[in-house]
Amino acid sequence: MAFRQALQLAACGLAGGSAAVFFSAVAVGKPRAGGDAELRVVEPPAWAGAARPGPGVWDSNWDRREPPSLVNLRKRNLEPGEEELASRLDHYKAKATRHIFLIRHSQYHVDASLEKDRTLTPLGREQAELTGLRLASLGLKFNKIVHSSMTRAIETTDIISKHLPGVCKVSTDLLREGAPIEPDPPVSHWKPEAVYYEDGARIEAAFRNYIHRADAKQQEDSYEIFICHANVIRYIVCRALQFPPEGWLRLSLNNGSITHLVVRPDGRVALRTLGDTGFMPPDKISRS
Questions:
Q1: What is the helix, strand, coil percentage profile of the chain, to 5?
Q2: CA 46 – CA 7 distance, rounded (Å)
């Protein structure tokens, strides 16, 4: 019976839902004397926030940018009338769509002991050129490039930006590589628990800071590029789609790949492409 319940829980989680589902009970195959599997409950990290709606329910206020969340009614002694409230809510409605392009850095020297020495390989530089050409060919008016402050991301950004003249670049530590959350199924040999605890809060902060619907003052659709790392991108995709983020390690991204997220004014999120490298010749594709 417990095993069947575990399967039902897993099915509900994979069906989608909100952040509460992300950190719900996970079944682990540890048989008891009676033969049934014993359930292990994974507690949500402290930075995960309060409970959200249950499985299969899209949280339309996932970014806390629904107009009622932006209006502070307590500023006044008297509550506003219906007309005034409706006007104030309308003032806070997003009007534009955000197009977010998440680029994984190109191939780099993984064996270097110091981070500053983990520079791009010759193949990695070719990959960055191809990614830059691809982005330029889209004919979009990119608003900015935000990139990780790690060496491989900086070098990838420098090469890509040559193909996008005039687009400003911003560096941030929030997008540095790390271990966002303990994956399910677990990989016990990969990272200790303390690493997830430290990196997870930072990568979650990157998600909250950069992935949300447009500001109400934004009148035109925006096209933004974020150049960072596989773990960060995979976690962001799961969070944005309200999929269980523990599944991030099940996704795979090639070097120099393009992932395209769309965040609409009503908070709906769509994934246009995930890890696209179809613009690269087969002999130029790698995942290291």
A1: 35, 15, 45
A2: 26
Which DSSP string corresponds to 105-116? ---B-TT-SSGG
Cis peptide before 281 (omega within 30 of 0): no
CA 153, 154, 159 angle in degrees (round to 5)?
100
Alpha helices for the chain (secondary structure H): 2-14, 19-22, 67-70, 82-91, 122-137, 151-161, 193-210, 230-240
Taking a C-beta distance cutoff of 8 angstroms, is the pair 252, 277 a contact? no
> What is the edge-to-edge ordering of all strands in the sheet holding 269-276?
168-172, 144-148, 222-228, 98-104, 258-263, 269-276
226 vs 228: CA distance, rounded Å: 6
CA distance 163 to 189: 40
Give per-residue pLDDT as tens, 91-121.
789 999 999 999 999 999 999 999 999 999 9
Q: What pTM value is reported for the model?
A: 0.80
Both tokens of 122, joined, read 């010759």
Write the single-letter amino acid at 226. F
Residue for token pair 């769309």: 262
The owner of tokens 């016990």 is 188
Give per-residue pLDDT as tens, 172-217: 999 999 999 999 999 888 888 899 999 999 999 999 999 999 999 9
Are 175 and 226 in contact by the 8 Å Cβ rule? The answer is yes
Which residues 6+ apart lie within 8 Å of 28 measured at CB? 37, 38, 39, 40
Whether omega for the bond prior to residue 265 falls within 30 degrees of 0, making it cis, is no
